[in-house]
Design a protein that fits this description.
two-stranded antiparallel sheet, mainly alpha, 189 residues, Arp2/3 complex 21 kDa subunit ARPC3
Length: 189
């Protein structure tokens, strides 16, 4: 356990802080690997799932928060090398902000089911719920921003554009992240 100079317990150990920063960088790099569409195909969700499995909810939440704050101040960390508050408040901003729901749901499941379910089952279950909440939040956000331009899209129409084409790929990314994350977790932690 790491202590500060005045002997109070710190929020993060040096190792956790280092890995939290590394995962923020991984999320950024994975956001740059994209296929531009209405909602770009990226590897961001892989990086977030990988971070959750490797580091857990607390560190992953701060990794995502770091990614979002860096983008909000204008650094080109989002897909297509975009940055700025405008990107967060644009059509796909709800999905990026929704990543915080994914990580905090995972973090909450760690706190609630700490001694309960088998870790891997809890991880997969909480990532699925977190992804569903991210999709839901992002889809309603998309519909709202789309409507600001005097366009209307139904919920089912928004799902067809923003969620259905990505669902299979996100589940595949989750599976790969769980396999890799579990193997590397044994090496580093």
């Amino acid at each position: 356990m790491e202590r500060t100079i005045d002997n109070k317990k710190s929020i993060f150990t040096t190792k956790e802080l280092t890995f939290t920063a590394l995962m923020a960088v991984l999320i950024i790099v994975c956001s740059w690997i994209s296929i531009p569409t209405t909602v770009p195909f990226t590897l961001q969700t892989f990086a977030i799932f990988f971070s959750l499995v490797l580091l857990g909810g607390k560190c992953s939440t701060f990794s995502v928060l770091t990614f979002l704050l860096l983008g909000a101040v204008g650094l080109p960390v989002f897909s297509g090398f975009n940055g700025g508050v405008g990107a967060l408040f644009g059509l796909t901003g709800g999905y990026m902000l929704g990543f915080l729901f994914t990580t905090t749901i995972f973090w909450a499941s760690e706190l609630v089911f700490k001694n309960g379910w088998k870790r891997i089952i809890r991880s997969i279950f909480s990532m699925l719920i977190g992804l569903a909440v991210c999709y839901l939040f992002g889809t309603f956000w998309f519909m709202h921003v789309y409507a600001l331009d005097n366009n209307v899209i139904s919920f089912s129409g928004a799902l067809m554009v923003c969620v259905i084409p990505y669902l299979g790929f996100d589940l595949l990314k989750m599976a790969v992240a769980v396999i890799l994350g579990e193997r590397l977790r044994k090496l580093f932690f």
